[in-house]
């Protein structure tokens, strides 16, 4: 007798089943990044204002960095210029082609990886900083626990996790976790409240959690007030 292919035996099978209810991510993001002239705020080639603040104040110092959802590379390039050894991951080949062009034009070395972070294997306790500018709010709720667990395991003791993500209720980011599956869509992305972020990262020390400061473009920095910015530290 032929074994049914749509069977659930473990938690990863549940994750794959729930993934199948939502759009396939890589083709959508490749299409998104294919038109570089769209008026998308984060298409600017400027690092996050909070990230620059952390380095300028020596809250962060150069080290080994993993960026999750790096897009066209603006933050990865900045951190490499600051002397960091950077691995930058994105599932969109279109985004990474753009990122590599930017890095090459500035003679900056970044190791770009085209992959889904859930398909990658990371060495435990290997990064001083993990940075996410806009990835978390596009991760489905059923994958969030694995995502946070990966960050916890991959950071060195005392290492930091930097984050920017949508504020709940702004820019249309106001559906609940359960509604994702009723609607079979994350819509524009998932918004977060301050309390939800503190709860999700409860076993990290909160270094900073605030609204991002809007930067009027053109500007050497990026910032939008509809985003949270946070810096969490893994306990030693």
From TrEMBL:
The lineage's top-level taxon is Bacteria
Q: Per the record's keyword annotation, is Transferase included, yes or no?
A: yes
Q: Which Pfam families match?
A: Methyltransf_25
Where do the Methyltransferase domain residues begin and end? 65-159
Q: InterPro entries recorded for this chain?
A: Methyltransf_25, SAM-dependent_MTases_sf
Q: Indicate yes or no for the key word Transferase.
A: yes
Biological process terms from the Gene Ontology for this record are: methylation
Q: Name the UniProt key words of this record, in alphabetical order.
A: Methyltransferase, S-adenosyl-L-methionine, Transferase
A single GO molecular function term of this UniProt record:
methyltransferase activity
Q: Which Gene3D superfamilies match?
A: Vaccinia Virus protein VP39
Instruction: State the protein's name.
Output: Class I SAM-dependent methyltransferase
